[in-house]
Amino acid sequence: MGNGVKEGVVRLRDDAEPVLPAHVSSKSDHRQVLSSLLSGALAGALAKTAVAPLDRTKIIFQVSSKRFSAKEAFRLLYFTYLHEGFLSLWRGNSATMVRVVPYAAIQFSAHEEYKRLLGSYYGFRGEALPPWPRLLAGALAGTTAASLTYPLDLVRARMAVTPKEMYSNIFHVFIRISREEGLKTLYHGFVPTVLGVIPYAGLSFFTYETLKSLHREYSGRPQPYPFERMIFGACAGLIGQSASYPLDVVRRRMQTAGVTGHQRTSIVRTMRTIVREEGVVRGLYKGLSMNWLKGPIAVGISFTTFDLMQILLRHLQS
């Protein structure tokens, strides 16, 4: 080739890593973002649909003063099925999909981008990030997704705890809230959501990425099997959700205050009220045992689906 390098030809650095021309690199970056968005959307949709009945039951207990137990949760599921039909167990799931699909797409895509940016900053690449940047990438990804999709989360919570006669569909929820409570209500409970997302998303992504890294190191295989990914995701969900659960209870109370009879107050007052009336464990950790069942399942499905979709799309692109 001579001393120069022709335009459009891949150049190599000293470490033999290919450096693509600007137009090729830009096209590759766009493909990676689209691939992450699509994989994340599918991952979120499958995970949340799988655990929707348990999720709805958990929310109902979170926003009420009724004491939680596995027996009462099963009874609620059974009577809901008897009086409202089987599909009523998925009531609010349409709103969940409207929220989860963009949320998961943004979260996973943002995580990939934050990993790339932080990796570039610290001199690491992708999954080779050291612990603190790995934790930061997950926290930033969760915060980004929550900030952009929060009103949909509030709508989903309202639909989960109200009868069909009150809100007929997603648009009806938006219209009634806007007319009767004001547009600012759509972001009521946003602060505890973000405060909860930071440890939840941070620890979830951190745990999953760390387990995959340890697996590569000790197994000698570059990729875990699907069932191993499920186990890693389940561990990630268990740790992440346990760490952020009290703030999840607080945000649900704040989101549904307009329809459950609870007074609309600040985070601190809402938390004090819960503790005073129901106690620390029974109040702030109400329904956690159900979360230990549904959380690992949902997060395991989510992470596994995302990884397998990414692998599939890379094969198709190549």
Describe what this molecule looks like in 3D.
The chain is mostly helical and about 325 residues long. It has two domains: about 65-185, Mitochondrial carrier fold (Alpha/alpha barrel), CATH 1.50.40.10; about 190-300, Mitochondrial carrier domain (Mitochondrial carrier fold, Alpha/alpha barrel). Helix content is about 75%, strand content about 0%. The chain contains twelve helices and two strands. The protein has helices spanning about 20-50, 50-60, 70-85, 95-120, 130-160, 170-180, 190-220, 225-255, 255-260, 265-280, 280-285, 290-315, and strands spanning about 10, 20. A two-stranded antiparallel sheet has the order 1-2. Helix 1 (about 20-50) packs antiparallel against helix 12 and helix 5 crosses helix 7. The longest helix has about 30 residues, at about 130-160.
Descriptors:
transmembrane; two-stranded antiparallel ribbon; MCP_dom_sf; mitochondrion; 2 domains; 12 helices; transport; Mitochondrial carrier fold; mainly alpha; repeat; 318 residues; 2 strands
